[in-house]
Queue: 2 jobs
Job 1
Amino acid sequence: MIKQRWLFVFVGISAALAGCSGGEGSSGTNGPADVCAPFMSEVSAGEVEIVVRNDRSQAVYLRSGICDAQFQIAPSEEATPRRAELTVLDVTCDAGRTLEGFPLDCFDSSVPPIAPGATQTFRWSGLLYERVEMPASCYEKANPAEIKPSTCSQGFAVAPGMVEVTVPLYANVKQNCENGCETGLDPFEVKGTFSYPDGTTVTIPVSP
């Protein structure tokens, strides 16, 4: 009788442990962990409209925004501006999970003008981007035989507070070829400061 009683106790404990573990090869009721989730972009506190107004009597020129970002953002506690705008070469980690191919090169030499008295408007998502190394398995639809990016861009939300935006410009432009090849000359920057996320629009004048 003693041996039989201990046998019942052992079987009962084994069954309870099996129920807690979910059985071999199971991750429990929560399902398997998503190894890609830590690389997804955060949710921003809101978008901001950035308006550059040319108060000069002659045109000024922008980066195209295709290969080179047109503006940068620096929270008040940071001295160096960070990437706030994505170019065609910047694949977000979110998008990388479903893209089948990835851009490897960017060729654009245009330098768009802002005419005297005119404005140019950009939209900032409220995120700042950093390049991170996401596991290769997260690029689900990419062809394994093709080149995958070694890094992807992850967006991080900006905490409430003062923010400075920097917009690089050119005072002049040089035409390099008949097909519209251009080079910006005499570079300079304009800056504006606003309270985020309270300020939804910031206007930056280009002084004469």
Job 2
Amino acid sequence: MERTQSASNGDASEYGGKVEVLSPEDLSELLAAGTKEVHEKAENTQFVKDFLRGQIRKELFKLGAVALYYTYTAMEEEIERNKEHPYFAPLYFPQELHRHEALGRDLEYFYGPSWQSDISCSPATQLYVDRIHQIGEEDPVLLVAHAYTRYMGDLSGGQVLKKVAQRALKLPPTGEGLEFYQFEAVHSPKAFKQLYRSRMNELEVDVETKKKIVAEAVKAFQFNMEVFNELDEIGKSIQEEVLDAGMPVHGAGGDISKCPYYATKTAARGGTEYACQVAMAVLRHPTGQVLFAAWVAVLAGLAAWYLM
């Protein structure tokens, strides 16, 4: 079978080979077929469906970026640890693919200079992170599954999500807050994905190992779905008005706090600071302004009646 001549890792953005002829036994084909069902399930989670409709809210988008930051940090730590492993070295493209630094810049945009002390890893994300570290130490060939699931998705559907988020959240056209989606060293996503799949297919792994990689990719999708479902549940606990109005964060539209649990915790303490923050957030919302004006008018009428 004729295969494309792979470019060196240092020049991965350019892919100028012959048309690749794939076999059903190729790892890339096995992964595509083996993850088709779970991939469709992930795309049909409520969080993803709302996102694609442009109904993503800034607080949940930020928390999604936090989850991605911890996930990519773990994955890229293990990739660095195993970059010379024969089953992963051909897929080592740090300049083209690594995302954790870009995610750090996005989080600084949303949370401000103290972002690292203002975020934390959620329970669902922690399970995902723990699994990545486990296989990085015990069975590095399975990193192929996680790299395939994340990076190939980012180069495909991720570009659609970037445009949706930019419009829905009214983010700057210059790209602030969306650096995660910008692969500046990849000049042609289509060509790069072809190169990446070719490198995967050239890995000298046996049939059983290929099955293990496919099974791990299914797990990776399931971990992602758990994160999506967790975000969806968090969204149900946040007041819509507070989310939509927002409080200023780092010079751009933000929201009442950096953590969705903060509002509930502070309200339980009966804090006046929380009440003031909610009031300020509501007043920034057009509906809140109308209601406030109506309330003032009612009070003025009552005062006039009382003084007559």
